[in-house]
Amino acid sequence: xxxxxxxxxxxxxxxxxxxxxxxxxxxxxxxxxxxxxxxxxxxxxxxxxxxxxxxxxxxxxxxxxxxxxxxxxxxxxxxxxxxxxxxxxxxxxxxxxxxxxxxxxxxxxxxxxxxxxxxxxxxxxxxxxxxxxxxxxxxxxxxxxxxxxxxxxxxxxxxxxxxxxxxxxxxxxxxxxxxxxxxxxxxxxxxxxxxxxxxxxxxxxxxxxxxxxxxxxxxxxxxxxxxxxxxxxxxxxxxxxxxxxxxxxxxxxxxxxxxx
Length: 260
Description:
The protein is mostly beta strands. It is built from 1 helix and 17 strands. A 12-stranded antiparallel beta barrel has the order 1-3-4-7-8-9-10-13-14-15-16-17. A hairpin with a 6-residue loop joins β1 and β2 (66-70). The radius of gyration is 19 Å and the shape is globular. The two termini are 35 Å apart.
């Protein structure tokens, strides 16, 4: 990087910090990313929230490694006080190795309901129901309708810490039958005590465990950060590492979210 490029990058970062300082307030953006936990708060009524990212995934195999790139995107619309509609798709994806291929991932449709709000209770509490639709192709398509629900709760702790919990289930097809798979997320975050606490870091455990406890269990550790540039704009990064054979070995994600 030459001297001119470094100056431009430095000015851009300073501008973002100044913009964040001028616009930060209590009604800050709350997103369902990064990581695999869903936030326990719905989008405000008559507002639209876009949460998008670039995601790289590596799956290591005995014969060859599989490298994929996709762009998961959520569109969330607050239709009523305490209720949102949700639509998700990666739009397009690529398998880069072992052979190049264009992928069409499945799409998601769902809703989220606010049950409790922290201003009148010790925590946020919400319920989300999503359905994965069989619109994908190739190795990223499930070829079946996959319902999923989660109960979501978040707690503000002392000294800038926060705890997010997800507990739910889905019904994937394993072999020739459907099985109940329990979903659980434990996410601990910490807002750094600088820049109006605009930067937060987190570590998260994420799992999908069939009651039969077979090799299809997903278990992984996620870690990353979020940077709230303004009360309506956020960028984030996270990385994932597998704890089970059914999980992607490594994922890296760079995301952007905005509320309108």
